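Changelog-adjacent note: as of this version, every example in the card shows the full chain rather than a window. The one below runs 153 residues end to end.
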Amino acid sequence: MRIEITCAIEGLLGTFVNTLVLRTDVSREPTFRELLGRVRDVALGAYAQQDLPFEKLVEELRPDRSHGGSPLVQVLFNFANTPFGRVDFKNLSWTPCEIDRGASHQTSSVSIDPTARRVRVYLEFDTDLFDRSSMERWLTHYRTLLEAVVEQP
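Full-length structure tokens:
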């Protein structure tokens, strides 16, 4: 038997991603290198706990959910270090596809695909909080930041 996961059934299965909650100290005006070191330390600590599913963490912590949105995570950052193309195993294959969720699950979400011919950046945001021109301006600032880091880390 061969199973092929398509966009048509993604809504039933969900995505196969475990969200890691990260909080980084940005006080005392760190240089970019210092900030990167802080983020690295926090990320390594989170990776050490990645076997705990996000849903279980939410269940245990029981955060206030009266404000709506995703608990514990308002901004999602995804750096895709594997190709977004079709994946085939012995009896399973899937092809990534764009999904219209109808509404953002986070305040904002940035996904970066560096494996494409040109780096692609995908932005999803809550339209009750942000308008398109604000988020386009944010992307321009983000690009300026990345260019400055390359020029002078």
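Structural remarks: The chain has a mean pLDDT of 79.
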